[in-house]
Specification:
The protein is of the alpha+beta class. The chain is 46% helix and 10% strand. The chain is built from 19 helices and eleven strands. Strands 1, 2, 3, 4, 5 and 6 form a six-stranded mixed sheet that branches. The protein has a three-stranded antiparallel sheet with strand order 8-9-10. The relative contact order is 0.10.
Amino acid sequence: MQRTCAEIDRILGTDPRFGSADAISARNTARFRVGLRLLGRHHTSHAAEFRRIERLPDEALRRVLYDPVLRNAFERDLNLLTVRPEDPSTLALMLRQSPLHNAGLGPCEALMDVRHQPWADLGPAWTWTSTPPEEAHPLLTALGRRRDDVFAEMGADRRVVPDAETLAALARGARLLAELLPHSGAGALRHVALVGFAEGEEEDGSVHSFACGDRLPSALFLSPQALRNPWKVAELLFHEALHLKMFDIMRTGALVGDIGRMTGTPPWRVVDWNLRRVYSSLHVYGHMVLFFAAATAAPADLRSRYGEPLAPDSVGMVTPGSAASADGTYTTSEDRTRYLAHQALEAHADALTPDGRALVTWMLDALEPLLPRAAVSASPPSPTSSAPSAAAAATPTPPAPAATPAAGYRQCRPVTVLPLPDQGMLLAAAPATHRMHWLNSRAWLVYALCDGRDPERLERDYHLAAPDDPAGPAAALAALQRAGLIAPVPVSAAPEPRAE
């Protein structure tokens, strides 16, 4: 029997690797904690401030670092550790301007003169309702500057202060989405921290909605003019929240190796896309296939409360001057999913890690009843990967053996790790590069065995712990070494054997 929309929704919304909002949030929270430890170790004058935030309970920590301004600063600081470590910490400055709020509000949220949570029972998002001058507080100034950067890119002209009718329409659309898709729809809303409103014109018509990406993480904007129909609101919220979900997923696993590679111009646009945009958009359009199918099959109860769904799947206007504008093609999520799946899994397959391929094939397998795989060629997922993983699990072929044999392997110090046993993962940071790596259970086991024991004992102990893996630890050892997490112990440094 073919899967129903409800079954597909459950798969896409509960898979612990790529679907579950709780699992993805737990990995991001771990990443926040390890990142704060790295920043505190590097920016010693701010170590106490970073430690204070890192020790917060999970929910309080997420309130702070899912704030768009502070998360932008966090991501910037982490990136600068690897490229310009001499730069001062932006996050430390923002934290000093952001006293913790006793009411459990995020830093910018606490500065709103009218506080509103659009879906309080579904997630901790807040609405940008503030009307005071942005210069009234440094965080509001920073929020305004990042908004301006996003608006310039997305074609928005101005921010709109929502009225009661707009806020009610937003809440109604979110409720419809959660009822229509209680797993994937409601779960996507968990990745939204800020909802704002904007108006403007872009090259293919009026601005309806957009997610903000790196400049304003975890934030999306909607046009009040697009909120007249709750089905349209639900569609736009799902679309943009999925972009934010992918933002979180891509920071908790190694999915794309060459994320900036240019892939050409999709038929419905007039500018080149890089592989990051292809991958993220594939994730969105694939889920939208489910949304439109579920809307078409919506039960009478939903129709009686929210009205009739809009016309069958039409994902919006194509850009004037594009190839698709001449022949009317690529107007549906099915068409765009097929095109982008080909780009990711065939034209640029070499740029995806095994886990990157696994995510796409997992999604396409779930959508099989709605989007037959005969129309989309795909590679099978990695059989050994059980979660988004570091290069240790993503690179199966070890390099050529070193000229000088190793007497064993040791973990590079200082060791900065955080285990996630419920997900079978270890988050580990490489001391020399400050880069974080996600190790699945096999790579974690090999890393734990790197305590200086000799290679024969390491091999033997690995097979005792993982008897179902005939390949052994060689690939993981090579990848962990490339990642800067372990180093060989020279033969000359090996301890003398003890006399019996």
